[in-house]
């Protein structure tokens, strides 16, 4: 077929994209239905990478993440809770906005309720601090109520300035 152009095939399934979009948009009942279906599909299906079908995609630009990552980034707390109950991996490497982890995205977005939820599911809140451009002190004294509240949640969850300095030093090595 000379002269025809073919768009690259997506490795992202329709089911994963539906779950991703439902999580992004906060449709908790739909997330529950799709997560239930994914659990019957096989282990790890709830963590299948999805993407925004309206975003351009080519071999160099394929924005994707897990449904849990997008739910956490968009502060869709109930959707995130459903996904975690369904077995979603809160430590997945498929995140959003260049974050190194889902917890890092939650901290960067100043999403206190999401931080607490992830900690409840065993995620260490101190780990992503090593990749941050700010410190607890910066958050506490920024003048922003969201940053102050985020710092208080992190302190409440056991992240201390000394731990953060140590993690930053490790990250620079």
What does this structure look like?
The chain has about 170 residues and is mainly alpha-helical. It has helices at about 15-25, 30-40, 65-75, 75-85, 100-110, 110-120, 135-140, 145-155, 160-170. It has a domain at about 10-100: Alpha Horseshoe (Serine Threonine Protein Phosphatase 5, Tetratricopeptide repeat). About 50% of the residues lie in helices and about 0% in strands.
CATH topology of the domain at 11-99: Serine Threonine Protein Phosphatase 5, Tetratricopeptide repeat
What is the C-level CATH assignment of the domain at 11-99? Answer: Mainly Alpha
Averaging pLDDT over every residue, what do you get?
75
- Give the full name of the CATH homologous superfamily of the domain at 11-99: Ankyrin repeat-containing domain
Runs with pLDDT <50, length 5+? 1-11, 58-62
Structural class: mainly alpha
The coarse silhouette is: elongated
Radius of gyration: 18 Å
The main pleated sheet reads as: none
Helix content: 40-55%
Instruction: Please identify, by name, the CATH architecture of the domain at 11-99.
Output: Alpha Horseshoe
Task: Say how many strands there are.
Answer: 0
Number of helices: 9
Structural descriptors:
173 residues; 50% helix; disordered N terminus; single chain; mainly alpha; elongated; Serine Threonine Protein Phosphatase 5, Tetratricopeptide repeat
């Amino acid at each position: 077929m000379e002269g025809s152009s073919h768009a690259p095939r997506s490795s992202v399934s329709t089911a994963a994209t539906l779950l991703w979009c439902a999580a992004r948009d906060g449709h908790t009942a739909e997330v529950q239905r799709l997560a239930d279906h994914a659990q019957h599909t096989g282990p790890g299906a709830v963590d299948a990478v999805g993407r925004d079908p309206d975003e351009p995609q080519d071999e160099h630009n394929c924005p994707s993440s897990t449904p849990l990552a997008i739910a956490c980034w968009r502060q869709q707390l109930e959707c995130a809770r459903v996904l975690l109950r369904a077995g979603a991996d809160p430590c997945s490497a498929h995140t959003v906005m260049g974050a190194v982890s889902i917890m890092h995205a939650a901290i960067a977005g100043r999403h206190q309720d999401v931080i607490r939820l992830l900690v409840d599911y065993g995620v260490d809140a101190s780990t992503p601090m090593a990749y941050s451009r700010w410190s607890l002190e910066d958050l506490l004294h920024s003048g922003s109520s969201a940053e102050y509240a985020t710092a208080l949640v992190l302190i409440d969850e056991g992240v201390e300035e000394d731990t953060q300095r140590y993690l930053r030093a490790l990250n620079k090595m």
